[in-house]
Amino acid sequence: MIDDSTRRFTDRVADYVKYRPTYPREVATFAHVECGIAPGATVADIGAGTGISAKLFLDAGHPVVAVEPNAAMREAADRYLANYADNPGYRSVAGTAENTTLDTASVDLVTAAQAFHWFEKTDARREFARILKPRGKIVLFWNSRLVKGSAFLEGYEALLREFSTDYASVAETYPDDDAMADWFGDGFEQKTVFPNAQLLDYDGLRGRLASSSYAPKPGDARHEPMLAALRTLFDATQRDGRVNFAYETRVYAGKPMAAPVRASQDAQRPNS
């Protein structure tokens, strides 16, 4: 994984658990119908974080092994998903996208969600190919925050650019469609997009911002001015005490084929 990405969220776990969006159930349906993943197939969720993406496939009946290097996030996932340990089956391991610790040819489906942009892409592709069974598939997905379309969305983007520590550099790590096609190479099969959103009151919006790795923390000189600007933005754009924090959930699927990786920049913004 890239630089300090395995540690970036250690002190944001509580906000991440409480305020991060889920993913549409249609992502699992897409894996079944469009990718031919059988019910009950074993899933390795890479960079599983606090378990949000793993739960999507557990709820769809799949046993899941969550691979997560950050101990605090992995422990949060274990608490969150404890009821799935026996049915359909959940466990976690301390591993990375580049070294999962899983056995060769041991899983039917590799998934990765929001964490994908932190991976060392070439090494991760090689590792995914190693742990997948011969007919295994890869499904990658993440929530891309919309930056246009409403006064709130545009104001929130401007707020991040004004106050966030390394927002611009993090945003550039998200691959676009061409980069994902390059990453899959001849194994690329298809892409789809699902709408997603959170309706947030002010406390929810503040927590959502605090869960982002680039948001200034308490004690930073930018923290209080950022919250003051957030309050002003919320008051100006809320409807019935809520703002619509809109995303597109982007999904890419294929087989693990060798291919060059080309750096590129997404036109939308990350959920990091």
TrEMBL record:
Q: Which domain of life is it from?
A: Bacteria
What are the alphabetically sorted keywords of the record? Methyltransferase, Transferase
Query: Keyword Nucleotide-binding on this protein?
Result: no
Any one Gene Ontology BP term = methylation
GO MF: demethylmenaquinone methyltransferase activity; S-adenosylmethionine-dependent methyltransferase activity
Q: Where is the Methyltransferase type domain?
A: 45-140
Report the EC number(s), separated by commas if there are several.
Answer: 2.1.1.163
Tell me which InterPro entries the record gives.
Answer: Diverse_substrate_MTase, Methyltransf_11, SAM-dependent_MTases_sf
Q: Which segments of the protein form a coiled coil according to its record?
A: none
- One family name in Pfam for this protein: Methyltransf_11
* Family label: Belongs to the methyltransferase superfamily.
Question: What name appears for this protein in its UniProt entry?
Answer: 2-methoxy-6-polyprenyl-1,4-benzoquinol methylase, mitochondrial
Q: What is the protein's species of origin? A: Paraburkholderia caffeinitolerans
Gene it is expressed from = COQ5_2
